[in-house]
Specification:
37% of the residues lie in helices and 32% in strands. It is an alpha/beta fold. The two termini are 39 Å apart.
Length: 237
């Protein structure tokens, strides 16, 4: 299922866009949220109750422009696909600064929408393999697995430790998490630890060195962990 946000201060544009998207996707399930201002979109976005697969954003919004809205979104989500809608090519360069997925001129054609929806679906597939959605208290977090150094399990909770951001703690069994993660770089080294080989510097006796942290390597996983680490090192040569 695709979950899309449409943001334009012209109701007729929103209605047209939603109608065309539903026609193009046909029997595919799609959930669409409509917003008439950047402020309204951001207020909803901050609630973190819905994870969008893409945002269609009018550049010419009043008060807070589409570019300004996109800049706020990028402060908390670097990967969310943004599709800009505009009546002019004047802001094309600015759209690249916020890493827009596409830049569509009004009036939109069916062919253009088909193309951008295909890009969004491809991004969704790739994103599922590199992203983990977790709930911590009342907040939903989209964890980029490539940024996770390791997961630590303790007292029925798991803490994700990142390369460049604060840890996130959530409820889940480590065995279940290990099954859910599709990234081949994650390696179980202990009943309480799941590490990302991208950040493993070395295996020293009974410790796995992840960045500057020394994590315990249990006998149960030692042989497999050492072999997997060597295979990973050789694959990078």
């Amino acid at each position: 299922m695709l979950t899309l946000a449409l943001c334009d201060d012209q109701i007729e544009i929103l209605e047209y866009l939603e109608r065309k998207i539903r026609i193009i996707l046909g029997t595919e399930t799609v959930q669409i949220f409509r917003f008439t201002s950047g402020e309204q979109l951001l207020a909803f976005f901050e609630q973190r109750q819905v994870t969008f697969d893409a945002v269609f954003l009018d550049i010419g919004l009043t008060k807070m422009t589409g570019i300004e809205t996109a800049m706020v979104i990028r402060q908390v989500d670097q990967r969310l696909p943004l599709v800009f809608l505009t009546s002019s090519k004047a802001h094309a360069i600015q759209s690249y600064r916020v890493h827009a997925l596409d830049y569509l001129l009004k009036p939109l054609t069916t062919a253009e929408l088909v193309g951008v929806l295909q890009k969004i679906k491809q991004h969704q597939v790739e994103n599922r393999q590199s992203q983990l959605i977790v709930k911590s208290k009342q907040d939903l977090y989209a964890i980029n697995l490539k940024e996770v150094m390791y997961f630590e399990s303790s007292l029925r909770t798991i803490t994700a430790y990142f390369h460049q951001q604060p840890p996130i703690t959530f409820y889940k069994k480590l065995n279940d998490l290990e099954t859910e993660i599709l990234q081949p770089t994650f390696l179980r080294i202990h009943r309480s630890y799941l590490v990302n080989l991208l950040y493993v510097k070395n295996i020293v006796e009974t410790d796995v060195v992840v960045q500057n942290q020394r994590l315990p390597l249990s006998k149960t996983y030692a042989q497999h962990a050492r072999r997997a680490f060597m295979d990973y090192i050789q694959s990078q040569l």
